[in-house]
Structures are given as structure tokens and as C-alpha cells.
Here is the input.
Amino acid sequence: TIGNAHILGVTDEEGYLKLYDTRSKLKASATNQENAEKAIVSSWIAHNNSVYDLCWIKGDSTILTASADHLVSH
Here is the structure.
């Protein structure tokens, strides 16, 4: 939704889904890892294998994910 347009969803090969706040104020003196950790809004294991796709449900805060484990999750 427009109110959450600054949230970026990122998935990985271990099944994690992380939501980042792209408006987060980052410190120039911090490492990339420190800045990335500061910007995380939420993180969880969505699947037991690589997550290939995610889809935001328009007008809702629901996220659907599809994975190599042959499941769709929300």
C-alpha cells in the first residue's frame, strides 16, 4: 500500500524473508552490516528452501511467498 511503499521485501536461499525500511537513516561511519541490521523491520523463516518469489497483496499487509519447497505461504 502507499503507506508502506518504503518497505522492501528481500528473500534468500535459506527460506528467510526480511522486510527493510528504505527510509531508515544510516550512519556513514557504520559498516554495511550494521546499517542493514538497523533497517530491518521484520525477519522470519517463510520456507524450508529457497524463496523464489514474493507478492504483496494490494490494499493489505499480507505477503505471499513461493519457494523451492513447492509451497506458497503467507
In short: The helical segments are 32-39.
